[in-house]
Specification:
The complex is a heterodimer. Chain A has a two-stranded antiparallel ribbon with strand order 1-2. Chain A contains 5 helices and 2 strands, in the order αααββαα. Chain A is mainly alpha-helical. The two termini of chain A are 26 Å apart. In chain B, the strands form 3 sheets. In chain B, strands 5-6-7-3-8-9 form a 6-stranded mixed beta sheet, sandwiched between helices. The chains are: A mainly alpha, B alpha/beta.
């Protein structure tokens, strides 16, 4: 699990941990049932206070992204949960907003953006079939 | 270790109203400070702010001229054995006996501390890649810091007290020190107090922080609270102004014309409300790094 902590931009460290784990789950690099590292292990690896990791895990649990199993640890929840789906939609929405803003700055029309999306989708599909 | 409520746990260090002068220079001015059990407490301030003088009072090396110092509930000047026996200390200059070999230094220190853990000491020596036959005199600056850390940690002290542990060290050794701090509090009940002017390190590992400036405490609070209660907001006014209106909690302002950036102290929602009340549009609202908060505070 790759997480990068920065102390240069004012974002609280627990928020950085929460956002990056959300992203790893939403992008499929962490899947349902995967276990998160124990609090102490992640704290020692990232060189941050264990209480900060504990707070991040609590937030993720409240958001339904992970669940605590009694005596066993913290695991990624089933992806079908409405909260996880909402989170994925949220991440995609942000990406789409950025894309549309950039397209508009470059003078590319919405129809052309849509065409490009379809082309890219077709390209990805064909490389997948080759594998 | 987790969810420690500082008001409920007992204080490991309790300092009430101490002042200290050296000649006619006032080094500490009515300092009150309480370090709760089981966390990492960061003492931050510039050179000469008074951090080391506070630490020397905790170690009983200085007697309070005014006020009281209690460590584990005891006066460290009156009870040096009972208090120092539970403190692991690494000084800023990392004074170690130069004539000893590392193995001798370890045996020598062990003699003072009944709780010395030989297996743990050896584990640290290997992790820090220290040669036990090397003379202390021949150690590099980084190795010296690691050796000092080893003998401060090996008896698993209840309080680990580090004075500017990272100063002058390369990033690899600084990581070792941060790792040692984290492992120390991960063992239940133990407490770390460290002073530093490297605020990105403090931001990573400290639960609570005190900002010391010119012998006084400007601010002491949990890291979470400090981060949550300081915001940087950029406001756009309808018309250019010579001077930005003072909002409640304003610590500093910079800008010109109709766009001004404020550093504010208070609840996020109340600050947004205050900004809107003077007819300004908030164009940016973000948190600050501990470094930025510190600089704003000591300039105020």
């Amino acid at each position: 699990m790759q997480i990068h902590i920065s102390t240069n931009d004012g974002v609280p460290i627990y928020v950085q941990v929460v956002n990056q784990i959300k992203f790893l789950v939403a992008s499929g690099r962490l899947s349902a049932g995967d276990e998160l590292p124990p609090i102490r292990v992640l704290a020692a690896k990232l060189l941050i206070n264990p209480n900060t990791v504990a707070r991040a895990y609590r937030e993720l649990e409240t958001a339904g992204i992970v669940e605590k199993r009694r005596t066993a640890g913290t695991f990624v929840s089933e992806q079908g949960s409405p909260l996880a789906r909402r989170e994925r939609i949220k991440i995609l929405t942000e990406r789409i907003d950025t894309l549309l803003a950039e397209a508009s700055h470059m003078g590319v029309t919405f129809d052309d953006v849509m065409k490009l999306v379809e082309q890219r989708y077709a390209a990805i599909q064909s490389t997948r079939q080759e594998e | 270790m987790l969810d420690t409520d500082p008001s409920r746990s007992q204080s490991i260090v309790d300092i009430q109203g101490i002042s200290r002068s050296f000649g006619d220079k006032l080094a500490l001015d009515n300092i009150t400070l309480s370090v709760p059990q089981g966390g990492v407490f960061g003492l931050i301030g510039g050179n000469g702010a008074g951090k080391t003088t506070i630490i020397k009072h905790i170690l009983g090396m200085l007697k309070a001229q005014q006020g009281t110092v209690r460590v584990f509930g005891l006066d460290p000047v009156q009870y040096p054995v009972e208090t120092l026996g539970r403190i692991g200390y690494l000084s800023e200059d990392r004074e170690l006996p130069d004539w000893m070999r590392l193995s001798e230094l370890m045996r020598y220190t062990q003699a003072f501390f009944p709780k010395w853990d030989e297996a743990y000491a050896e584990e640290l020596r290997l992790a820090f890649d220290l040669d036990k036959n090397a003379k202390v005199k021949t150690l590099s600056r980084g190795q010296r810091a690691r050796a000092g850390l080893l003998i401060a940690l090996a008896y698993r002290p209840d309080l680990l007290l580090l004075d500017e542990p990272s100063s002058g060290l390369d990033p690899v050794v600084r990581r070792d020190i941060l790792g040692a701090i984290i492992r120390t509090i991960a063992d239940e009940g133990r407490t770390v107090l460290f002073s530093s002017h490297l605020l990105d390190e403090v931001e990573r590992v400290a639960d609570r922080v005190a900002i010391i400036h010119q012998g006084r405490i400007l601010l002491t609070a949990s890291m979470e609270e400090i981060k949550e209660r300081h915001r940087r907001m950029t406001l756009r006014f309808e018309h250019a102004v010579e001077r930005p209106p003072m909002l409640i909690g304003t610590l500093s302002t910079t800008g010109q014309g109709n766009e001004w950036t404020y550093v504010l102290n208070g609840e996020s929602a109340a600050l947004r409300h205050a900004a809107e009340a003077v007819g300004a549009t908030i164009v940016e609202d973000s948190g600050l790094t501990l470094d930025e908060i510190f600089v704003t505070r000591i300039q105020g």
